[in-house]
Structures are given as C-alpha cells and as structure tokens.
Amino acid sequence: MDNENLENQSSIEVDTKLNAKPIAESTSDTGFGNNKPRKSKRSIFRFKKPMIVVLLIIIVVVAFGINSYSKSQKAMIKEVSIATIKKGPLTQSVTLTGSIESNGRNEISLSPSLKVVEVFVEEGQTVKKGDLLAKLDDSDFKSQLEKQKLNLSNAEYNLNYILENSSSNDKLTSENALKQAQISLENAKINLEDVNKKFEQSKKLFEGGLISANEFEAAQKAVKDNQNAVKSAEIALANSKSTYSNMDSTINNKIINQKNQIELVKSEIEGIKKKIEDCNLRANVDGRVTKLDAKVNQYPEAGEKIILDDISLYKASMDVSQYDAIKMKKGQKAIIKVNGGNKEYTGAITDIGQRAEKKLNSTDQDSKVNVKVSINKPDANVKMGYEVDTEIILNEKKNVLQIGFEAIKEDAGKKYVFIIGDNNTIARRYITTGLETDYNIEVLSGLKEGERYVLSPEKTLKEGDKVSEAGGHK
C-alpha cells in the first residue's frame, strides 16, 4: 500500500516538473517580468565548476614546483664541519715511555770466597760517603801480612849485613840468605800441600752435596793464594842462589839484588793491606741503600751486591728514536707522569746520549739514543725502576694564529684551506704555515682571526659551493 502511494507521489512530482517549464517559457513570452531571461543557480554552478577545478590544478602544480625547487636547492647545499680561526698557545711535543733512575749509583759486588762477618746498615737506610756498610772476613789476609812482614824484616837484615860487612863475609851472608830462602820455600810448599789436601776433601764434600758452592770456591781460592806464595818463595830462592853463585860479583850488585828483594816484599805487603781494607765495604756516594744482599756469617752467592743510589736527583731515562732525538737539546722542558698515578712532575733534559744503538732483545730495530730528564720536587711516589710517561716540549709559541691540521689541502705544492664566505659560499684561500703539532698548525699568512673555515673537507668540495654547518644552520 505504501509502495503504491510512493509511486503515485513520484508520478505527480514528475508531471509537475514537466509542466513547469512550458509555464515559465509562456510567462516569458507574454512579457511579464524582466526583458532578459534569468539564469538559474544550477546553471551558474555549472559554469564556475570547471574554473574551480582548473584553479585547484594550478595551485597543486605551483606547490609541487616550489617544493621541488626547494629540494633541489637543499640538495645543492653541502653539510660540512666548520671552525673559527683563533689565536692561542701552540705546543709541539713528543711523549716517550721510560723508567726512573737515580742521579748516580754505587754497586759493590760481594766476593763468594769471603764470608760476611758484620753488616752495619739496613735496606732503605740513607748513608754518607765513606760510611761503613759491611765487613768481610780478613783473617787470612792478616795472616799473610804477618808472614810478609817477617820476610821484609829478614830481607832488610840481610841488606844491612851486606852493607856493614865487607866481602870477607859475603859468602857466609849469601849462604844464610840461601838457607832462609830454602826454608821459606819449604814452608810455602808445606802450606800448599796442606791446602791441597783440604781442597781435595772439600771437592769430595761438594760433589757429595755436603758443602755449599761458596765453601768450595773458598777452598779453591786458598789453593791459588798458596800457589802464589810458593812462586814468590821460588823467586826468592832463585835470587839467593844467584847471589851465592856469583860471589865474585861486586858488592853493589849484591846490594841491588837485596834491595829488589825488599821492594818485592814491600809490594806484596801493600797488596795485602789493600785486600784487608777492601774487606771494609764503604759507601762511595751519599745516597740510599736500595739493595743489600750481605748476610752475617754467610758466604755471598755469585752476583750478589750492595747497591747505593744517589737520591739527590731523580731522572727519567728513555730511549729515543733518531727522528725525535735530532729535535732535542739540553734544557728543554718536560712533564713526567708516573704510571698508575695522577700527579705530574716538571723537569728538563739533562743528558742526551752521544751514540745511537739498537736493542738486541727488542723487536724494534730502529737505532735509539738514551735521553735523561730531571724530575723536580720528587715525592714518595717517585721510586727507582718505576715506569713513567714523559712529554718533552720540543717547541712552543704563546699566541699564534692556528687551524686544525686536517683542514689543509695542497695544490701543486701550495697549501690552502676552504673559507666560508658571503652567503655561506666556499672560497679557496692559499696560506703559509709554521709550527706543526699533531692536531693544529700555525698560520703565518693568508688567514685572519675570526674567519670560518672547513674542517676535513671532502674531495668533492670546491670553490663556489654553498654549505651549511653539519648539525647546525645554513
């Protein structure tokens, strides 16, 4: 029922619309209203719609063009790292690794054949030059000294006898001297035989592991000393025999021979006295005992020492390649840092070696020169043998124009940089340079303070390019 009503209503609306047009046209024809026919709103909209579409298309095209132009312009602007040219201090230096040494060292080697009888110092103790450090056993040397004094007395007696008596008593004197020489030789041989027996016993004990190497070496030393005593006695006997066999020689020759014998004995006495004095181990420098191997009532092992270090001045010692060494000279300032610590110490070069050498136990085969640097105001953290890093100031300037080293390019041997000009446009500027460091370089001419330049320019960058700062603004 409802569908039928809708269909009827629709038929009526269609008929009304169809009939409306002839009525409107009839009205117009009869002259009612305006002379010109009036356009309906629908017809006006139909006329403006194409224009709106065209306008929208134009707007889209223009916007696209502007966007494309903007992108193309942005693509032409290159991003670079920019820095400003400034003045400031510039330091050329080289840092080397070395170790701490004392100003001087006194090394006293301990003889394995001499037992230590007394020790008067401790490791770490400060001593003065001449202080007694330790005493070695000198009893054997004192015994030898007494024997040689007796020999000297006999030799002097013989000389006086020759001088006081004429040739009538020469034969008797010569015989006495010969007998004395024979007795001395026999005594020396007996002593040597006793020492040899003791040595053989020591040898067996040593081979059986019953005595130490030091005790065995002491036995060897005793044999050698007595062998020397036998040789001296043989010389004395030979001289006595010569004197006896040449009884017809002049008194002067006899006197000369006896005097020579006396001088020989005196020389041996002085040698023994020197050995006795050497048993008193004394400091040869003012310093600190940094190593003390001496132990009371013990024979030292081979290579054991007493070491004194002069701590009036500490030095950093390092081996420097010839490429760096040729730039160094005495007095150049340095900064020293002990590895593991934070404190820095000042110093200066005190010594530069005169010979370059290669280290046989190093993989680095470059020839190197030893350089020493003083360490000012050392404290408890400065110790011999500590490893240090030392920065040596080769050259420095206080207030110079400088730029980053990586900014410099070369063209036919001429150095230049890229400067940021007006409108952020690149310009090439040729420069001359001076002092160089690992990071910066001095500019002598071509640039002014405050100008901006490109750091690490790419190969494609050229004069006239527009740039913007990386991470910043145009």
Highlighted features:
474 residues; alpha+beta; three-stranded mixed β-sheet; 7 helices; rod-shaped; disordered N terminus
Provide a descriptive summary of the structure in words.
- By secondary structure, this protein is an alpha+beta fold.
- 41% of the residues lie in helices and 30% in strands.
- The protein has seven helices and 18 strands.
- The chain has helices spanning 2-29, 41-76, 139-164, 170-207, 213-245, 251-278, 322-325, and strands at 78-84, 86-109, 116-119, 126-127, 132-136, 280-282, 287-292, 305-321, 333-338, 344-352, 368-375, 387-404, 409-411, 414-420, 426-436, 440-445, 452-455, 467-469.
- A hairpin with a 5-residue loop joins strand 14 (414-420) and strand 15 (426-436).
- Helix 4 packs antiparallel against helix 5.
- The longest helix is centred in the middle third of the chain and has 38 residues, at 170-207.
- It is rod-shaped and about 165 Å long.
How large a portion of the residues is in β-strands, by DSSP E?
25-35%
Order of helices and strands: HHEEEEEHHHHEEEHEEEEEEEEEE
Main sheet: strand order: 2-8-11-10-9-12
Q: How large is the radius of gyration? A: 55 Å
Total helical segments: 7
The residue-averaged pLDDT reads: 83
* Structural class based on helices, strands and sheet pairing: alpha+beta
Q: Per the principal axes of the C-alpha atoms, what is the gross shape?
A: rod-shaped
